[in-house]
Automatic annotation (TrEMBL):
<feature type="domain" description="M23ase beta-sheet core">
    <location>
        <begin position="115"/>
        <end position="217"/>
    </location>
</feature>
<keyword id="KW-0378">Hydrolase</keyword>
<dbReference type="Pfam" id="PF01551">
    <property type="entry name" value="Peptidase_M23"/>
</dbReference>
<dbReference type="GO" id="GO:0016787">
    <property type="term" value="F:hydrolase activity"/>
</dbReference>
<feature type="signal peptide">
    <location>
        <begin position="1"/>
        <end position="35"/>
    </location>
</feature>
<dbReference type="InterPro" id="IPR050570">
    <property type="entry name" value="Cell_wall_metabolism_enzyme"/>
</dbReference>
<dbReference type="InterPro" id="IPR016047">
    <property type="entry name" value="M23ase_b-sheet_dom"/>
</dbReference>
<dbReference type="InterPro" id="IPR011055">
    <property type="entry name" value="Dup_hybrid_motif"/>
</dbReference>
<protein>
    <submittedName>
        <fullName>M23 family metallopeptidase</fullName>
        <ecNumber>3.4.24.-</ecNumber>
    </submittedName>
</protein>
<keyword id="KW-0732">Signal</keyword>
Length: 228
């Protein structure tokens, strides 16, 4: 068997090819390693950016929730009805709402045996007459409720502060003795009964339920906050 001898030129060529192949393998390996290394380096940056976006989204959602809650709270406050403050009822009021003042307290004249004991409010017959303050009716009826025929139909009310109010010359009485009334409650209709020169309400403030104890009714009402 004869020994095969490689041509020197062919051997050189084979060695060159083998060397080239190894280099390619090394280069390819290095490239792969570099690519893998680059991927490993850039991965943390990508993860950090994603986390930042997520954190920003969470913060925006939190702010949006706070704004929504504030708007809802404001709407609830606006929708809550405000309770009206109830004003305290005045203790004393006018005995008639609309009037013209005529004969005044302590006025002299042929109409009276003595000086005038009250204040006259000129009003048409049938005008509603109101209790000047809360109290209890102690007189009600004709002949001044017991004070004399000059008063015509009359009412006397006892009040909590120890004073009395009288309403005379009435056309109709709407309360009875012993009845409790409130300030401003309608108790009668004005008229022209008794010793009267024309339709009006005769109004007195007294220190007792009887004739002869009257004080200036206008000064009394004004002292108690009534504009007359």
């Amino acid at each position: 068997m004869s020994k095969r001898v490689m041509n020197p030129a062919a051997r050189i060529t084979a060695v060159a090819l083998a060397t080239a192949g190894l280099g390619a393998t090394l280069v390819a390996g290095a490239g792969s390693a570099f690519a893998a290394e680059g991927k490993a380096v850039t991965a943390p940056a990508a993860l950090t950016a994603s986390a930042a976006v997520a954190a920003q989204a969470d913060a925006q959602a939190h702010v949006a929730a706070q704004v929504k809650a504030a708007v809802a709270k404001a709407a609830a406050v606006k929708a809550t009805p405000v309770k009206a403050v109830k004003k305290a009822s005045p203790a004393w009021v006018k005995p008639v709402a609309s009037y013209a003042l005529s004969a005044s307290f302590n006025q002299g004249g042929a109409m009276w045996a003595h000086k005038h004991s009250g204040q006259d409010f000129a009003v048409p017959i049938g005008t509603p007459v109101h209790a000047a303050a809360a109290g209890t009716v102690v007189k009600a009826g004709p002949y001044g409720g017991g004070d004399g025929p000059a008063y015509g139909n009359a009412i006397v009310i006892k009040h909590g502060n120890g004073t009395y109010s009288q309403y005379a010359h009435l056309s109709k009485i709407k309360v009875s003795i012993g009845q409790k009334v409130g300030a401003g409650q309608q108790i009668a209709l004005s008229g022209n009964t008794g010793n009267s020169s024309g339709p009006h309400l005769h109004f007195e403030i007294r220190t007792t339920p009887n004739y002869g104890s009257a004080v200036n009714p206008m000064a009394f009402l004004r002292a108690h906050g009534v504009g007359v």
